[in-house]
Amino acid sequence: MLQEILTVAELNRLARAALEREFPLIWVAGEVSNLVRAASGHHYFTLKDTEAQVRCAMFRSRAQLLPWKLENGQQVEARALVTLYEARGEFQLTVESLRRAGLGRLYEAYLRLKEQLTAEGLFADERKRVLPRFPRRIGIITSPRAAALRDVVVTLGRRAPQLPIILYATLVQGTEAASQIAAAIQTAAARNECDLLLVVRGGGSLEDLWSFNEEIVARAIAACPIPVIAGVGHETDITIADLAADRRAATPTAAAELASAGWFEAAAEIAGLASALRNAMRTNLERRMQRVDLLARRLVHPAERLAHSKQHLAHLASRLAGAGERLAARRQQRLAELRLRLARARPNLEQRRTRLERAAAGLAALNPQAALARGYALVRTPDGQLLRSHQQLAAGMLLDLRFAEGGAEALVNRIIPD
User: Fold this and answer.
1) How far does CA 1 lie from the centroid of its chain?
2) Domain ranges (residues) in the chain
3) If you compute the radius of gyration of the chain from its CA atoms, what whole number of angstroms results?
4) Domain 8-101: what homologous superfamily?
5) Which of 93, 206, 250, 317 has the lowest CB atom count within 10 Å?
């Protein structure tokens, strides 16, 4: 039976899958050498010890999270995935994170102390003291040369310049720093010069900040009768001192802001009230000034008032006279119109009399009685039909004759045509 023949690419792919399946993420310690920072942001280096070495790749997304600069010769601990770079068939580690050698032991010590003090109730909320809203004097526990001191002083000067500051100088790094920090806290408590303490230090590595993870510092903070704000390192740095303090601030500047919050808010509130008061006074003053202007306009000398009244009276008299004249003119015009209408409506008696006489004469001419008076007669049938022609007659017809005075009946004997 023939065995299956693999290509090199297939072999490397199978080897890579087997390695990644067999090995989970592991921590590997060694010295950095042959470091190359690619333009893409990836880091390539060799991790070695006295007997062996292994190629490592740390991609940009991971490398940019390093809080310190990676250099050749550094002793580190790498959390990495065991794999194979298929293109060249090279065994290598894909590094997820790096820490300086020994930091693992420090972190384990940090966790043990944190667990111990938590069990004792040293970090319990019920033992935390309330910070004074308006501290009268603030103590600062830090190094005189620390940048943290400058940040705190500048912030307090900007937000609460009236606050006195007392510096309790101490080392903040090194083998003697923890005991000095604890002693400074105890000195501040014994002098009782302040009503609020700030324990501050700038950022650094876990080793740099280790003094603030010592038990002696935590117990000094917990035993201090003065409320304590801890502002150690950056926002991501949480030390044992931060946990033991009454309040933790992300940075020294944040600690100063927290300490001066009451004064700063009060100043802002007072400024707001002062502004509101100024606006109210300005509004009230403007309203009163407008009232004075109005009263001043209404305040007139009697002689001026009398002159104004005379002028007004003369104006009214002029208007009244003009109104009378206009009324008289309108009435005269109306009277003329009525006269014209009356003249048009009045009858002409002479003309009417002449017309009447003509009409009477015409009527008299047409009066049949007048014709009868001249010797004519009206001839009607017995039923009243007026006869105008001999053709309407018939022999033996009875006729009714009407004269100017009286009448007669006649019998037709004979008809005489024209």
Assistant:
1) 81
2) 8-101, 106-259, 366-411
3) 67
4) Nucleic acid-binding proteins (2.40.50.140)
5) 317
